[in-house]
Structure formats: C-alpha cells, structure tokens
Amino acid sequence: MVNRQWPRWRATALVLGPLAILLAGPSTAYFAPATQSPGQAPNPADPYQATEIITGVDMRYRPTGFARCLRDVLIKVSGEPRLWNDSRLPALAARADQFVLSFDYHDQMAGIPPHDDQGTYDRSYDLTVHFDPAKIDQALAELGEQPWRGERPVAVAVFAVHGPKGRYLLSAEEPLGTDQRSSLTEAARQYGVKLRIPTQAELALWGVAADEFPAPRAELPTGETLVAGTLEFDEAAPGWVGSWRMRWQGTDYAWRISGVNFDEAFRDVMRGVLRLASGHGGPS
C-alpha cells in the first residue's frame, strides 16, 4: 500500500550544522537554529511566516528560498507591497538566513513513485520559513516602515471572467474556475490577505451577472469588504487584463493590469487590497 501522507523534512543547525557550513562554504551558513517543535504545522495566518517552492533540500536552492520568503514577510508584516522593488531589499535578502528562526520542507510529490528524472533530483518542495519577529520589525524600521497591527479585513472577491472557456463568475463552485480559484487563493496567501470567494447562491442574491462589471448589492458583516473586477483575456495584449474596484473608508478606488497571466493579475489585485487596508494609500 502506498503511503499517501506528506512528510515534513526538517533541517536544523543542531543536527546538520557542520554539514551546512561545509556545503555553504567558508563565509556563509544558511542554516538557522530551529526552536519550533517538530511536526508543528505551518500557520498561514502568521505574517512572520512565508512559503516558497524550491527544487531539492540541499544548499543550491535554500538561499534563494530564504530570500524570497524574507521579501514576502516584510511585505505582509508592513502591508506595503512596494517594498518588493525597494533598492535596499537585495542587501537584506542576501543575509536572509540571519532572520530565520526555523524552516520546514514539504515534499510536493510524497507518495508518488519516481518516474523518469522528475521525482529524483528534480523534485519540488514547499519551503516554509519562520522568521524572528523582533528582527523583522527592526528591518522594517530601517526601511522606514513599521508592522501593521490593525485588524485585517476579509476581502470578498467578486470577479467576472471572460476567457477562452467562456464567460462565468468566479464563484466557490464554478468548475471552469478551478485553476483561477487556486491561483487567487495563493495570491491572497502570499500577501497575507484574508480571502472569501462567494458561492453561486450569494452572487445570484446580490444580482451579479457574468456579462457585466460586477456591482454586487451586498450587505456584508463587519470585517468583510468587497473587491470587484473583471478578468478578460485579450489576444492583442497579449494576455489577461484585470480591472478592479474597491471602496475603502468611503472612497472608491480603481486600478488595472494588462498583458499578464492570471496568476500575476490576481497578485496585482491582492497587492491593491493590502495597500489600501494597511493605510499605505491608493493601490496603483
């Protein structure tokens, strides 16, 4: 019987420290002491934690994974997505290991028998990195930012999709939107945005139609906010065009992105939601 459980591979300086130093070279060791108890599951709600996909569990890819996770955490904690392009970030990312408390590996192909080269040396892992909150807060202070301590609203995404598969609303059940739901959820996770995708019944109750820009007539509970938009494939762009609207604290905001895949389109809308909710100003 094939074991379908997904094991988590943990690496710590306590056990692998000498080997880590040998692999990293004489000047840099990317292993950090791990204080998290073994087997503790990642907490997506923790802004001081991030996950990136890397290839293998050795030192070839870990520094890059650490660096990307550090960027994600600085953005999530501060609520300022423009930090991604800050010229000072590469220097911080180069020493990302100094901010790490612990890290975990999750084998994406666990339980799947190896086939050709895939699943042997070319194997994908989720690298989840837990950073030291005090050090992250200090790094943000050096960048002129501070942690966003306010309540994070739930973004209720009401999107109409016009693409090669036809026109449809990206509801919680729409079968044509399976890949896009997954992509939108991943974008929200990356930027630390709480997300809710409405059901078909909710969208019908709110009077939302797939052939027009969504204007939901919805009364949402406290803590939820609407972000509406269209995602349309344009061969001339070429690529997807995302147009978004959000009302925040009495002001209407609109922004768009074009000529991208839908993964980047969803990242764009989540960056806008994050920036508005954290008080950093307009999304564009």
Describe the structure.
The chain is an alpha+beta fold and 284 residues long. It folds into 2 domains: 8-142, no CATH class; 154-277, Rossmann fold (3-Layer(aba) Sandwich). 28% of the residues lie in helices and 26% in strands. The protein contains 7 helices and 10 strands. It has helices at residues 13-24, 62-78, 89-93, 133-142, 178-190, 200-205, 262-277; strands at 8-10, 49-55, 100-107, 124-131, 154-163, 166-169, 194-196, 224-234, 239-248, 251-260. The strands form 2 sheets. Strands 5, 6, 7, 8, 9 and 10 form a 6-stranded mixed β-sheet that branches. It has a 4-stranded antiparallel β-sheet with strand order 1-3-4-2. Strand 8 (224-234) and strand 9 (239-248) form a beta hairpin. Helix 5 (178-190) runs parallel beside helix 7 (262-277). The radius of gyration is 21 Å and the shape is globular. The N and C termini lie far apart (53 Å). The model is unreliable at 1-40 (pLDDT under 50).
Layout: helices, strands, pairs:
Layout: E1 8-10, H1 13-24, E2 49-55, H2 62-78, H3 89-93, E3 100-107, E4 124-131, H4 133-142, E5 154-163, E6 166-169, H5 178-190, E7 194-196, H6 200-205, E8 224-234, E9 239-248, E10 251-260, H7 262-277
Parallel strand pairs: 5-7, 5-8
Antiparallel strand pairs: 1-3, 2-4, 3-4, 5-6, 8-9, 9-10
Helix pairs in contact: 2-4, 5-7
List its salient traits.
alpha+beta, disordered N terminus, four-stranded antiparallel sheet, single chain, globular, 284 residues, 7 helices
